[in-house]
Amino acid sequence: MITINKGILPYVSISLLILLTGCKSELYSNLPENDANSMLSILLNNKISAEKTVDKKAGTYFLYVDDSQIPQAVTILKEYGYPKEKVATIGELFKKEGLISSPLEERARFIFALSQSVQETLSQIDGVLVARVHVVLPENNPANEEIKPSSASVFIKYNPAYRLEDMKSEIKMIVEKSIEGLTYDKVSVVMVPAQFVSKN
């Protein structure tokens, strides 16, 4: 019966990983599962030799491609808006660390979290490469008769293969319904098609 010294198991695992990935190099690391699956599918559909591995302890994924195809892989994934920018969750932003936040700090963090949440929603639209949302929630004094309305400005860079200009009204509606007190006419949207380098 063959026995293996437990002390060398980590080295055996690393060796097996190298054998499995062959002449491939790590392209991206610490990816969430959904992004890793989407990126792998995109690369394989574009005839890029790619593989993914998982770090079970961290619950994150690694993406590998052939050394000779790294530039092409990066370009293709960029055209699809990958890797996605990590968006901080409300839970992360409002994590308590034993310090008492001032009302001003709490308000600033709330507005930022709200913007991040809407950005994440817009980023899920097919063809969106970059989404930025800036929310303005004025502090209205009950003693003042004039109430300043809330407003939001949205910037979107998109893949020109997708006709997202036709969705501008839907995008404004998504933002309007995501922010309490915001009206449709107070949402401004700027959409810019990405310029890709020719592959020829």
From TrEMBL:
Superkingdom in the source lineage: Bacteria
GO biological process: protein secretion
Annotated compartments: Cell outer membrane
Family matches, as Gene3D superfamilies: 3.30.300.30, Hypothetical protein rpa1041
Keywords: Cell outer membrane, Lipoprotein, Membrane, Palmitate, Signal
Topology with respect to the bilayer: Lipid-anchor
GO cellular component, one term: cell outer membrane
Domain Flagellar M-ring N-terminal residues, every copy: 26-193
Cited NCBIfam families: III_secr_YscJ (TIGR02544)
Family as reported in the entry's similarity comment: Belongs to the YscJ lipoprotein family.
Protein's recorded name: Lipoprotein
